[in-house]
Fold these 2 entries.
Entry 1:
Amino acid sequence: MYTHRVSRAMFVALVLSCSAAGTFADSLASLLDEAFNGNPRLRAAERQWDAARQRIKAEGGLDDPMLGATLERENTRMSDYMDVEYMMSQQFPAWGQRASRVDAARLRAEAAGLRYLEAGRELRASVAVAAWDLWLAEQRITTLREMAALTDDLTESVRARYESGQASSADLTRAQIEHATLTNEVANLERERSVSLAALNALLNAEPEKERTLRDIEVPELNIHQPADLYAAARKFSFGYRAAEKDVEALASEAKAARRERRPALSVSIAARQPEGSGSIEAIDTGIAMNLPWIWNGKYKGSIASAEAERAMADATRQDEWRALQQQISDFHAKYENAARTASVLRDAIVPLARQAVEQTQAAYMAGTGSLLDRIESQRTLLEAELNLHTAIADRSRALARLNQFIAPIQDAEAASGAAGSAPSN
């Protein structure tokens, strides 16, 4: 029975090690569909983009025309008047000012669209990370249960040897302690799994206890490994960074509009007079007027300086965000490569050697040439190696999910949304 348990544990570990580049594409795809349909933060980003697009029309419009009428009198009696003058006037902004404001609104809308796509990518990465957290919790529970079963078999073997006088009571106590310890660790990990499950369900806008099923299949490797290439990809495909660039462009257009406010604005008017008792218009007056923005020049200088300062601040913020993005990419890339290397060493060398050590110490103990402590220690070494393998697989996949948030080419759905702009797709 013990040999059967060891073979089963080795098979489980082998399957896990072969999925070092794995994920749960079928289940992950359905989780992402659920997240994109129900996540309120993503919906809010989409509504913000819609609102920004509507503001383009508002900035492109003229001021409302003014309509009015004047009664001309020779005295103060309200019932007596000489004629009625009907008036309409329309104000036109300074030349080029409206175009600058429309450009600024358009750029703001483009930035909002890019932030909507960035919210989608951040959600995609967060769901993948949360799903890998859940996967890791489940694999750790499975491994610990296998080890607890092995320890249960070991305890029965020790009990049989004790009853036949081949083992001491201390050995039986040690085996029982080890089994109780592993059983308790399984219970602790099951509680941790519920926390991981709740974190995933929160992203899906679902109840915390809703169960999820994950399946393992192979996923592509990271194709870019040089930091310079990663940074270049991020400049093209990081929607958050591109949104910051659009903000700078929008503020530059607003600064241009502020400078154009110093140009005179025109007001065109037309008036028609109808004398008392007359059934027709007998006189029409037309007029044109303009403001004199050079008299109170200080206020225009102030608005221009304020707009330029806003643009400079946005540009500084963009540069700071770029440095922070480079740091994140460097961090996740290092985590990806370290985890990939660690998983390879564990899968190819450490875990097989640890399994071999368990078999050797078990055989030595049963033959009476080895100690139970060596047997328990070897199993603990194998347990640690397999848990480390699971962690390395998850770390690698989580880091890759975060990297793809910044460097992955534009996807078909992102291009179809119309929010990606004219950035290259590969």
Note: Residues 64 and 181 are 79 Å apart (CA to CA).
Entry 2:
Amino acid sequence: RRDTLSGSDMAGADDTDADDRNEDGFLEGQFLIAMPSIGDSRFRRSVILICAHSSDGAMGLILNQPNDSVTFPDILRQLDLLEDPQIELPRAIEAMPIHTGGPVETGRGFVLHSADYFMRNSTLALSAGLCMTTTLDILKAIATGRGPEQTFMAFGYAGWGPGQLEDELLTNSWLHGAPHRDLVFEIDVSQRYDAALDRLGIGAGHLASEAGHA
């Protein structure tokens, strides 16, 4: 029986507030915004929420790559969750979009959500009222109407080894800045890149001359 959406150690959860974990200059809980100079086409015009960052590396979820090959009901069926007699999916839940969170472990799922849903030892508090849960319990909660008010579901993640993200920042591959919940839950996926730049007060035409931080 699968009890988690993700087996990634870097996506492990606790209930410590993210603001207490950024004293060493790590970017956990912040956004990354791809610069035009980024060398990997998989991250072109991507906006990423960094979910974990330490001296051991970093992991995050791309927020603006839709995954049209699977639906939420498909996922519930694959996990044998639609057999639960309590589950009668509202139309809005059936249509919940699924995203590609990154090129690593694309079969593993992650749910970002509002802080009104929290399971001790299962939910990771990030920042700006954002949380992440990777256990099947959250899918059951969503499907039965007991889930968080706002959700973002993705398969796969972006990962960096020790020092790799820092090196990419030094080579001007990324901007970074404070997170905004509307970029995760409300703004249309096709508009999130430009909206993220707007939050930094930067126009796309000025990116080439910008430094790798905000």
Note: The helical segments are 72-78, 91-94, 136-143, 164-170, 181-185, 192-199.
